[in-house]
Amino acid sequence: MIIPKLHYISQGISPKEHLENIQKACTSGAELVQLRLKNVSEKKYLKTAEAAKEITSHFQTRLIINDDFKIAKAIKADGVHLGKTDACPMLVRKHLYTWQMIGGTANNLNDCEALLSKEVDYISLGPFRFTTTKANLPAILGLDGFTAIVETLNTKTPIIGVGGITVEDVLAILKTGISGIAASGAITSNFNNIKAFHQLLNASSTEEQRHTF
User: Fold this and answer.
1) Which residues are paired to 125 by β-bridges?
2) Which domain holds residue 186?
3) Cα–Cα distance between 54 and 27 in angstroms, integer?
4) Of 12, 48, 75, 114, whose CB count within 10 A is highest?
5) What is the DSSP letter of 14?
6) What is the pLDDT of residues 49-64, one digit of tens each?
């Protein structure tokens, strides 16, 4: 399973705004979008997820649902991203389709090791720096934290850096051994940054095809 190197985590003050931003991200070439809705009813989340699936399918962009694996299964999203207080990945795996991916959030080495033992498809590691997207932010990892964790893990499972990452950070982050980046604010504030991220990550599929032939 190939995990795209750039993940756009949706932002917005309402479900409608999340959908508008997902549309913009897809139009700008996003390869993977994570729908991250907080404090909405299950019904509203499902409805928004269905609308997000319509948008992403049109652009052949992958869609990951944050937290709620039942919704991910119901709408046949490409996968689910589990936070630290969500269901266990091993349990979730039994409920999902075999082709759906599971990602997990990690804030330190122990979290990463626990997720690897539960056979997730990718790990989202952060925060890289201070970010307002998350309440009760764990300890900032920075480049040194990323380097130490990636070197100790020595895993083929993709580790995606997250937490206040900007385009300017990408090259330094890639040197730590991190395989990709998840961004929210840096993309929502300027969707043209998707192209810049892709160029730096060498992540766009057209680039990959160009190298193959």
Assistant:
1) 106, 161
2) 6-212
3) 13
4) 48
5) S
6) 999 999 999 999 999 9
